[in-house]
Amino acid sequence: MQKCGCAREAVEKYGDMLYRICLLSLRNTADAEDVVQETFIKYVQKSPDCNDSGHEKAWLITVATNKCRDMLRYRSRHMTESEELLNSYAVEKEDSGILEALMELKDKYRIILTLHYVEGYKTEEIAELTGISPSAVKMRLSRGRKLLREKYRKEYM
What we know:
Order of helices and strands: EHHEHHHHHH
Strand order of the largest sheet: 1-2
Structural class: mainly alpha
């Protein structure tokens, strides 16, 4: 086992990807930036052992998604954002609407769909990252696709 690469390299390599995942989960640019920053702070503090860059990426995604969940849990207990403010971050209507429809899905579907379709993870890898079974990942992918299809058709067709 070797220590993961330096923080600067990790930020350059994975920063944008982590930001996209956090933004889709949190629907707020400031919170997404905070979570990404906290993720890299933890990376520097913990200096995790990594077998390869894939393990490093998985570690960062796991930390970021856990921090997103914590923030969402905190938000649900402490109302902080108005619906109007959240809507101000929505994609313009002229766009295809896929991102907007994705953002409307529950977190459990949105994260799974993002990891699979945007980041290219396989079912088993997503299961490992999220701590759920591969069959649960497949079910969430299936249900998430169905919900996304329904939302998209309802809004944009």
